[in-house]
Amino acid sequence: MQQQTSEKNYIAMILLCFFLGGLGIHRFYAGKIGTGILMIITLGGLGIWTLIDFIMIIIGKFKDKEGLEVKPS
Questions:
Q1: CB of 8 within 8 A of CB of 28?
Q2: Cα–Cα distance between 41 and 23 in angstroms, integer?
Q3: Whole-angstrom distance, CA of residue 35 vs CA of residue 45
Q4: Percentages (nearest 5) of helix, strand, coil residues in the chain
Q5: Whole-angstrom distance, CA of residue 58 vs CA of residue 38
Q6: What is the pTM of this model?
Q7: In this predicted model, what pLDDT tens digit does every residue of 32-67 receive, in sequence order?
Q8: CA-to-CA separations, 67 to 19, 26, 42, in angstroms, rounded
Q9: Residues 9, 71: contact at Cβ < 8 Å?
Q10: Distance between CA 18 and CA 73 in Å, rounded?
């Protein structure tokens, strides 16, 4: 049985996190509006939260709103 993955684009998610991660734009793209707003307020947890998200996206463990992992297709 194959595990489902998110339909969100992996490369788009990496680019959004890298260039606009401090504003949480990648979280809005993943459908996580609440944490996206928190990232705007805290500037990505002063960069720490953004770095953690970036690493999670690269290794394929970042999850979208439905709990599905964003992985390369």
A1: no
A2: 8
A3: 11
A4: 60, 5, 35
A5: 22
A6: 0.91
A7: 999 999 999 999 999 999 999 999 999 999 999 999
A8: 24, 15, 24
A9: no
A10: 20
